[in-house]
Amino acid sequence: MKNKLNIYCKYFLVSGITATIISCSNTKFLKDGQLLYTGAEVKIESDSLTKKEKSALQSALEENLTPKPNSSFLGLRPKLYAYNATKEPKKEKGIRYWLKYKFGEEPVLLGDVDREFNKDIIVNYSENKGYFNAKAKYDTVSKNKKAQVIYTLNPGGRYLISNVKFPADSSLVNQEIQILKEKTLLKTGNPFDLDVIKAERQRIDDGLKDKGFYYFNPDNIIVQADSTVSKNHQVEMIVKLKDNTPKLAKEQFTIDKVVVFPNYNLRDAKRGKYSIPMNQDSLKGYEYNDIYVVDPDKKFKPRVFDRALYFDKGDVYNRKDHNLSLNRLISLGVFKFVKNEFIVSDSLNHKFDAYYILTPRELQSLRLEALGRTNSANYAGSELNLNWTQRNFFRGAEQFKASVYGAFDVQIGGPAEAENIFRAGANAQLSIPRIVAPFRFNSSSAFVPRTNIKLGYEFQNRTTLYTLNTFNATFGYQWKENVRKEHELNVIDVSYIDPANETPKFAALKQGNPYLQRITDQQLIFGPTYSYTYSTTMLPKKNTFYYKGMLDLAGNITGLVTGANVKEGKEKNIFGVPFSQYAKIENDVRFYHKFTEKTSLATRFIAGVALPYGNSEHIPFSRQFFVGGSNSIRAFRARTLGPGSFDPRGAENTRAVFDQAGDVKLELNAEYRANLYKFLNVAAFVDAGNIWLINDEFNEAGENTRPGGKFSKDFLSEVAVGAGVGLRLDFSILILRLDLAMPLRVPYYEKGDRWVLDRIKFGEGSWRRDNLILNIAIGYPF
């Protein structure tokens, strides 16, 4: 222990000396008289502001100052050092050019700082926040060829709102403004704030847009601040229309005609095939429920547009229906470009026509995909997919997708008992842009609800072990409440798994092992499934959140009706196959925190449980939980971890089958991500978790086939932990990910001896071979 302490002390001493050398060495490249700019600090002198108010104002002011000093990491400036230490490249390419001009940063000098300009920024920002009598000054502090600028602000008293007025008149637009004033953002007693004033003008504009004032603009509103009518740093706010507001902006418009061009392209428009504004005599269109459709070839059924568009003839224009219509047309998935125009048709009665100009995508596409993959589980593989898509299958924007695929994973090393795997299959899906049901479903969402029908088949051959034929079919609905909330309900979700060609080798392996026996059992699984997704990850926020919950209820009604109870010997069959009965729930929670534009923290927590009952004593193998692999606990090979403290190394009859499954799953992941250079990203991560069984599994001899696998009060001691580093190459169209991980805690070691931090030996080839796991994958793990 003493030797280790000495090593650590030496390491930190060397690190400290190295950091000091790098830090100081940047200044030696400066010319005489030059000073390296290390940043600015704003000091606030005020007795009237609280500590919290001072801190908020100081942070905002420092954020607005320019230029920013050279970037630093742990007090060092490696990018500046790379620029200084690298000689001038002879060509605009190569490692020297990359180090100096791509990775490196040119030094930011004190001479680059316009201190008077920054002082004005401080004063102006303070005045915009209600400090009307703000005064600022600056001073420069230099030492060892480095300089910092100290700005001192005396903000004076902050002006508060004493009263808010909305002068009234008889105009229609003003009457609507009077209604909107009840929810004003300008509150008596709040500080004067220019950002709040801008938000108030935008709020009024949004409200008027929803009342038919299409040509209104936030700039038509003026907010006057009068400090002469009040005392003690108070100001009265007056919100009114500008005197020069255009007449058109004050008029409320209604919809006259709704015209749709569903097969519009620029080439035909240039030839004069279509005319806007519309001349109905020259167009080959037709009326459908007050919508005029210009579709001479009748490629689309008109009810598609009747369901998507929210405007009807005579409606008062509002922005909500405007945006809903555009978003629903886009979400149909058949149009490449969606454009909307409003053209005045009757200025006297304030009417305009609504034109929807739609350019279709290619209605059919055929795509061939070839994917290669390899991992540390000693397998290399490839997959070939042929996909055909028809985006207007029945002329109602239905999307039909069909695919055939083949894949193989071949052993390239490792245990002699490992098996090669071959898969082939076909899938077909029809997606209808509406709810097909015996009841009426009305949606005011910007996203078109869909009815999905899927059929699929897969053939899987584990070479010398067994073959599985899997058939599946689903019928269900998918709809989004808004951009954050999405639901998917499969009313019918059926899977039938039929084993074939079981070899004598596998028959011998599974003798006395109920777990292996269930892999090749005939399985009939049917019942509803439901998932709910809530996500804010698409929003430009510092902190974002993702949640997906899934509920799978198999054979519940059938089991209730038939009185199935396998424990009482009442196992029920359908077409000679016992149907599965269970309840399964899984929750996936993710949190993302952005430190800067180039660094972030991503975390994930997964918790799931599956409970068999009624007609089933165990969860079907295909519906159990698995951990390990490139998108899970990366320090352990895919599907080799668990259940619990079960040690797969000592089980002779499981060496040929890597997959370990469980009924309970807990997993926690944390990953720090940073961008080094354009497409090059790095990560450091920690993964933890495991799977467990609800019930122990015993063979005919009464032996527990997976000892330690049952979930118990000691589950925390059976959590596996791994850590590693990753390299991600972001090529826009795909992200190639390489993660190198090693175990820190192994749950199947003896209790009290599961942490392996003291056994890490990077210098030994045998240790690296057994403990370093390389995962190669496409995309982020979460």
Automatic annotation (TrEMBL):
Kindly give the Gene3D superfamilies that the UniProt entry links to this protein: membrane protein fhac, membrane protein fhac: a member of the omp85/tpsb transporter family
Name the source's superkingdom. Bacteria
Q: Please state the protein's primary subcellular location.
A: membrane
Query: What PROSITE patterns does the entry give?
Result: PROKAR_LIPOPROTEIN
Question: What positions does the domain Bacterial surface antigen (D15) occupy?
Answer: 460-753
Q: Which Pfam families match?
A: Omp85 (PF01103)
Q: Where in the cell is it found?
A: Membrane
Keywords on record:
Cell outer membrane, Membrane, Signal, Transmembrane
Task: Tell whether Signal is among the UniProt keywords.
Answer: yes
Coiled-coil intervals, chain numbering: none
Q: What is the protein's name according to its record?
A: BamA/TamA family outer membrane protein
